[in-house]
Amino acid sequence: MRIEFSSPPDGLSLRIRGRFCGSNLEGNLLEGMFLSPFKQGEDVCIPRQGDSSLLLDIENQGEGIVRTFALGEYLRIAGYDWEKENLDDVSIFLDYVRSEAIIATDFWTTAIPIDILL
């Protein structure tokens, strides 16, 4: 997954978190905290998720979480399929000016309204 912003959050850190941290040898999803810091424009490897709980946090080191985005919900609304045998690479562009997330794979692109959770 690659995430970019229309206005980069300068001086702030980014992280993705979710409820599923991987899978066992039989391929069953393992529930557990998934947490991955990243930098804008870098690819982030996310384990297969079993629901739409994936979140993007923007943090200020002194204040904690400044904003949270419901990435899992955006992906669900856009029709991203976590059950495909081979998951599609996905890019998300968060456009503050238009208040939308543009979600794209190699096969489709869609724009949806964004909500800021915090």
Outline the biggest β-sheet: 4 strands, mixed
Overall shape: globular
Order of neighbouring strands in the sheet with most strands: 1-6-7-8
Taking all Cα atoms into account, the compactness measure Rg is: 14 Å
Structural class: mainly beta
Total of DSSP H or I helical runs spanning 4+ residues: 1
Low-pLDDT runs of 5+ residues are none
End-to-end Cα distance, whole Å, is 22 Å
Fraction of residues in H or I helices: under 10%
Strand content: 35-45%
What string, H for helix and E for strand, traces the elements in order? EEEEEHEEE
Features:
118 residues, mainly beta, 4-stranded mixed beta sheet, 1 helix, 7% helix, globular
Describe the structure.
The protein has 118 residues and is mostly beta strands. The protein contains 1 helix and 8 strands. The chain has one helix at residues 71-78; strands at 2-5, 13-23, 29-38, 55-60, 64-69, 91-95, 100-104, 109-113. A 4-stranded mixed beta sheet has the order 1-6-7-8, with helices on one face. A 4-stranded antiparallel beta sheet has the order 3-2-4-5, with no helix packed on it. A hairpin with a 5-residue loop joins strand 2 and strand 3. It is globular.
Layout of strands and helices, then pairs:
Layout: E1 2-5, E2 13-23, E3 29-38, E4 55-60, E5 64-69, H1 71-78, E6 91-95, E7 100-104, E8 109-113
Parallel strand pairs: 1-6
Antiparallel strand pairs: 2-3, 2-4, 4-5, 6-7, 7-8
